[in-house]
Amino acid sequence: MDRRFGGKQPTGTPSFAWSCAVVVVSLLSGASVVHNIYKPDLRLPPPDSNDKGIKQEKVDKI
Predict the structure, then answer these.
(1) Using CA atoms, how far apart are residues 46 and 42, in angstroms rounded to an integer?
(2) What is the rounded distance in angstroms from the CA atom of residue 22 to the CA atom of residue 15?
(3) Which residues, other chains included, contact 14 with Cβ-Cβ below 8 Å and sequence gap of 6+?
(4) Contacts of 22 (CB under 8 A, 6+ apart)
(5) Distance from C-alpha of 10 to C-alpha of 31, rounded to nearest angstrom
(6) What's the CA gap between 39 and 32, in Å, rounded?
(7) What is the pLDDT of residues 33-55, one digit of tens each?
(8) What value, to the nearest 5°, has the Cα angle with vertex 3 and ends 6 and 11?
(9) CA-to-CA distance for 43 and 1, rounded, in angstroms?
């Protein structure tokens, strides 16, 4: 009676490093697909010279 619950030997699990590699590759490929479909605009807006003047006025008023 050494065997319990069906008596099959465990098949084993993949190593932790292999699992992490698979997760990273799947996340990067998913991000690549999404960015190829939606093509987001990742440019930064140009700095406005007016913002500095407004901030300086607020500091002067305090």
Answers:
(1) 12
(2) 11
(3) 22
(4) 14
(5) 35
(6) 10
(7) 988 898 878 898 888 766 555 55
(8) 60
(9) 68
Mean of the per-residue pLDDT values of the chain: 76
Q: Read off the tokens for 14.
A: 């993949």
Nearest Cα neighbor of 31 from 19, 42, 15 is: 42
CA 40 remoteness from chain centre: 15
At 60, the pLDDT band (50, 70, 90 cuts) reads: low
Q: DSSP for 21-59, please give it.
A: HHHHHHHHHHHHHHHHHH----PPPPPPHHHHHHHHHHH
- Tokens 């991000």 correspond to 31
pLDDT at 5: 67
